[in-house]
Amino acid sequence: MLAETWFWLLALSLATYVALGGADLGVGMLLSRVAKTPDERRAVIDTIRPLWKPNEVWLVAAGGTLFLAFPTLLAVAFSGFYLPLMLVLWLIVGRGLAIELRYQMDEPLWNGMWDVVLGLASLALAVCFGAALGNILRGVALDETGTFFAPLWTDLTIGDEPGILDWYTLLVATVAALALAHHGALYLSGRTQGDVRERAAGWAARLFPPLFIGWIALGGLSFEARPAVLDNLRAHAWGIVFPALAVAAFVASALLRRPHPRRAFLASTAALYASVLTAAVSTFPDVLPARDAAHSLTLAEAAAPDAGLATGLTWWLPGMALVVAYYAWMHRRIGGGR
Amino acid sequence: MEALDVHRLQFAFTITYHYLFPQITMGLALLLVVFKARELRGDEASGRALRFWAKVFGVCFAMGVVTGIPMEFQFGTNWARFSERTGNVIGQTLAMEGVFAFFLEASFLYFLLYGEKLVGPRGHLAAAVLVWLGSWLSGYFIVCTNAWMQHPVGYTLGDDGVIQLESIGALLTNPWAVRQYVHTMIGSVITASFVLAGVGAFWLLRGVHQAVARRSVALGVLVGFVASVVAAFPTGSMQAHMVSEHQPATFAAMEGHFHTEDRAAMVLIGQPNMETLTLDNPIRIPGMLSFLTFQRWDAEVPGLTEYPRDEWPDNVPLLYFSYHIMAGLGTLFIALTALAGIAWKRGRLYGARPILWALLVAVPFPFIANTAGWMTAELGRQPWIVHGLLRTEDGHSLNVSAGNVWFSLLGFAGLYSLLSALFVALMLRLIGRGPAPDPREDDAAELAARSEVA
Predict the structure, then answer these.
(1) pLDDT, mean of residues B186-202
(2) DSSP string spanning B273-316?
(3) Is residue A92 classed as helix, strand or coil in its secondary structure?
(4) Which pLDDT belongs to residue B445?
(5) Would B214 be classed as within a structural domain?
(6) % pLDDT > 70, chain A
(7) In a domain, B268, yes or no
(8) What pLDDT, in 10s, does the model give residues A30-56?
């Protein structure tokens, strides 16, 4: 019971990172498309500047939560995904500095360099996170020792020894990048003015069809990539509510785009939450499915002993209530004007 | 090199590089609060000093954040077996750092750096205080994690070898953590105050930015003096007592004390010779080690050879030098800041060019001393990753080969070299431009001072 509580808290933390940090990634990806002049570029980055750090802390906090509640999962997954995680770390370094250091000098070359770093790193991070999700959904090559080490690619098919990149994970990565770019476009169209706003709304409209088709296709192909996903949905029929919600929220985000960009962004936020929870329910109660189902890492095997889990809850929940209070305060201070 | 060594090298490199930045931001966060409080009391130049140092803080903080995230990830990527065994305990403190410290810092930093107009003068002070609190909380959770690895408390050992949390209260009030924390934070305050004093001295030597330079030098020297003294006594000696009590082999290795003796001498200088287990070219103070350890001049202090060889720290010379470099530099810091403090008291500091030069040249040394201090702690913990519980050789990820770690280590080395160049260039530019000019003061005075120097 405790382990299950932590599983859902962890999924919610990650979903919050995807929704909040994902908007920042989307804005980074679209920067060069929606902003044509130095002033416009600055205005676009200004929309994410105050909040990108706390937004990224959700990822770090989710990492800490994983460590506390599921140390075995952290150990197995992080060491197995060693190579892509190192790439993610370098991208996080470059992207964080791009946002902060671009403002240190008012030189066109300096600003332009960091804007390119921001754009490329944002896109690459979205792709990496999508590929990581794809790997978990498809299952990894856990062996009898309970560990694996994933190469970056093998032959791009889903065999017994798949790489990080195969046709399925590439598809998940593409849909993830589309979803976050769409999310960022909606964010910008609710928080900028004039030409930038128009271009952002245009990108939201352009990105939506491939995103929606890709998301639906992914639903079907996931059964192909790992047939056990279907059994999982049968066993936890209530879980169907998450994909249904995701589809409905995506549709709502498209319908609200013109009349109410800010509400469209909220709908997209709901869609991202529901997407992450869909992924969670399609593996639950495994936390890291294996290609050979006998070696899958289950929730019970991955969880820390109960005493530590119970203790953790007593401070984690109040701590997160504080975080919500910070966010409410920050939004009141900076959100109203734009 | 075996995989284990490359894993260790990568962690050592990335943590050493990372800690160059938090040590300045944690100390500087405190000094920013002082400047802000003085500004609110009506000192306009303190406000300009605050705004200048907040810019330096912003760049250092960004560097600290981006080089810090890889640290948290490396527990899982490179030290999987360690993480699996200990996650139930140290996952608590690491997750607490995210929830209680990082969100606090990250949320209010923007308002400290850029949001003065959004929150008003009192709100700006509050933001400074909250960022300071956040950074010092973050320091506590990290030191607490490290202290548990040095001196594990509040746990039970399960049948399956998994280490279970028994008492979070014991974990958070680990006596080792409390002492190590105070010592670490003081070290960070020394770094920040030496940076303040050194940059202020640079401006005074050039004859520019007089008002802000004086405030930076004065605050740097005074806080630097107090912190340097406190670093040695009581915090440094308390820390040394913890080591001598709980890690006696480490203590002997640090001191270069190979053989058990009554009236044991303290070594000031000398090179450990691991073949003969003696010190070459030693300069010693007789009886001092006995006195400092047991408060009796004739007390017997056990030497390294009392302990089985497989419990010796695996790099005794490096441990010995790290400790002696830290302690030696710490002594010099007391002397330099005392000298500068006396000159300040007599009203002569701002024109005392030799002292100003010394303060300027001294800037890198607190970074070296802090690094050496951490090397003492971490090399001293060897051969254990959790002292007495888990050996370092049983902690790394077996599924990550040496070649893959070399790949990531070289990647970090390349990336961080690039960052260093950018960071140094930005800092030199910031310091060269200096704070905003005084709106009331006639710029002619500054120009006159400048031509006088020329």
Answers:
(1) 97
(2) ETTTTEEEEEEEETTHHHHHHHS-TT-EE--GGGS-GGGS-S-H
(3) helix
(4) 57
(5) yes
(6) 99
(7) no
(8) 999 999 999 999 999 999 998 999 999
Q: Which residue of B has its CA nearest to A74?
A: B76
Domain total in chain B: 1
- For the record, the structure tokens of A172 come out as 């998940």
Phi, psi (degrees; rounded to nearest 5) at B114: -130, -5
Question: What's the confidence (pLDDT) of residue B446?
Answer: 56
Alpha carbon distance B410, B60 (integer Å)? 23
What does the alpha-carbon distance between residue A221 and residue A173 come to, in Å, rounded to a whole number?
Answer: 14
Instruction: Of A198-207, B116-125, B321-330, give the lowest mean pLDDT range.
Output: B116-125
What is the C-alpha to C-alpha distance for residues B224 and B189, in angstroms, rounded to an integer? Answer: 7
Contact A97 B90 (CB under 8 A): no
Q: Look at residue A58 and tell me whether its pLDDT is greater than 70.
A: yes
Instruction: Give the helix/strand (H/E) hosting B102.
Output: none
In angstroms, the CA B265 to CA B290 distance is: 7
Please name the residue of chain B whose CA is at the shortest distance from the CA of residue A151: B404
Residue B398 DSSP symbol:
T
Q: Which residue from B58, B107, B158 is facing A330, i.e. has the nearest CB? A: B107
Task: Find the range with the poorest average confidence among A153-157, B60-64, B369-373.
Answer: A153-157
* Coil/strand/helix, residue B10: helix
Strand partners, B272: B279
Helix (H) or strand (E) holding B450: helix B443-453
Please determine, for residue B453, whether its predicted confidence score (pLDDT) is greater than 60: no
Give the residue from B258, B251, B278, B255 showing the smallest Cα distance to B268: B255
Q: Round to whole Å and give the CA distance between A43 and B148.
A: 46
The partner residues of A290 in beta bridges, in order of sequence, read A140
* Whether pLDDT at B454 is above 50: no
Residue B106 contacts residue B99 (beta carbons within 8 Å): no
Chain A nearest-CA distance from B414, in A, is 11
The verdict on a CB contact (< 8 Å) between B87 and A320 is: no
Domain with B393 in it:
3-260+302-453
Q: Structure tokens of A164?
A: 């990080």
Provide the angle, in degrees to the nearest 10, between the axes of the packed helices A82-101 and A108-138: 150
Is it true that the peptide bond before A289 is cis, omega within 30 degrees of 0? no
Q: What is the pLDDT of residue B448?
A: 56
Q: Is residue B294 part of a domain?
A: no
Q: How far is CA A222 from the centre of its chain?
A: 18
Q: What is the mean pLDDT of residues A273-281?
A: 93
What confidence tier does A220 reach under pLDDT thresholds 50, 70, 90? confident
Whether residue A63 and residue B98 make contact (CB cut-off 8 A), yes or no, is yes
**Residues forming beta bridges with residue B156, ordered by sequence position:** B164
Report the pLDDT value the prediction gives residue A204, as an integer from 0 to 100: 95
Residue B289 within a domain? no
Residues of chain B with C-beta less than 8 angstroms from the C-beta of A94: 415
What the block records as the tokens of A216 is 């639906």
What's the complex ipTM?
0.93
Q: Which residues, other chains included, contact B7 with Cβ-Cβ below 8 Å and sequence gap of 6+?
A: B78, B79, B396, B397, B400, B405
Q: What is the mean pLDDT of residues A277-291?
A: 88
* DSSP for residue A159: -
